[in-house]
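chain below, 310 aa
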Amino acid sequence: MDGEFRWRVAGEESDQLALFSPEHRELAKVEYLPVHARRIVNPVPAQSRMPFRFTINAYRGCRHACVYCFARPTHTYLGMNAGEDFERRIVVKVNAVEKLRQELANPRWSGDLIAMGTNTDPYQPAEGRYRLTRGIIEVLSAVGNPFSILTKSTMIQRDIDLLADAARRRLAQVSFSIGTVDREVWRSTEPGTPSPQSRLEAVAVMRDAGIACDVLVAPILPGISDSPEQLAAVARACAEAGARSVTPIVLHLRPGVREEYMGWLTEARPDLLEEYERRYGKGAYLPTLENRRIAAMVREHFVAAQQRAA
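prediction:
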């Protein structure tokens, strides 16, 4: 087992768990792989266009099982596959909180904002067992280090006490990912996540607690969740929930992700295969003008809904 990972495996594997919900398909049993990380605060590559320089990912792989997840290929670095292994073999960096405390105490640490949720959801079901994200927030808040969180999970409400305090001190930025409010699309493409409606309700709860929430309307799936009616519906719902802003992002299909997503599309929506080959035939992104048109539509509906509510 040790040879498959860059970290040292910590103890024996934990019991396998299953996640069941009447609204989700049954997911395969999950295996948690506890490891000791060599470092927990990781720099973003210099060529990246991300608005942050450092990240923390306490978990690798994700139980949410989103068919389009851009992080799937990272599991191949560990000798596992980007499909079922990514969804059910979850690497847990059990020393994350301890390592963070050590790294922040280093005199060379500059106090930059640290982003969570960039490569795996910090509030996926594993967090209910290991509580690493809560521990990380406690450490960051104690030293006054700013941080951001991106999640699809309503579990974030468990930590509302810590986040409300951090928000008052202008340390915390919280964003939800809500790509659609179409329940059929959600069930098909994000089988392990809380429903869009429950996420919207969480946005409202966080807002009422003094925690401003932004929403990434992402990813918007061509031919699946990009109709004018679908885009208007998700934009309105975000505004009505009290989101501070929306950022629309259309699906991009980089190598590694493309193969997984197209494999799913072949089974779920074979009628769209030819369209995807045409629209994504020249690269990972839709043409710029098409991207801009879709994003503008979402923003316009969001602003209009905000104005109606004012």
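The chain is about 35% helix and 15% strand. Residues 1-148 form one domain.
thats it, cya
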